[in-house]
Amino acid sequence: MIPKRRMSRFTDEEVEILKANPFTSKVDHRHIWFTLEFQNIFLSRYEAGDTAIEIFTTLGYDVSILGPNRVYGFPRRLYDRLGSGRELIEYNGTSKAPEPINVDYNTMPSQQAVSSMQRELTYLRQQVEFLKKITELDKEQK
Are strands 24-27 and 32-34 parallel, antiparallel or unpaired? Predict the structure, then answer.
């Protein structure tokens, strides 16, 4: 069990500890962003049956620093992101996710290829729905 944190902000010392982990992309006093590698490792291990606490701990994070909301909410946020058709991204200073790129699915492991295809399909469906709405609005204006 993870002890509850009094507040959601990280102290200066905690920020430094979190920055030292190679799986931390960026951290400030309120947020932590994880590398794409961490997100992929987390997903594969979580789907294999490991708990969120086990994964964070074995990858070098102190779960008492992160707190229960971040630890237990992380898999939900990942699955929400994937379920909405958005790609997993590493923090790069912007919040806009890149569009899917042409990928050779034959070079990927089958599980990863299926997952990538599902994300791309969801993304393309969203684009089609958006185009339909734009077309309908354009027709209504004429």
Answer: antiparallel
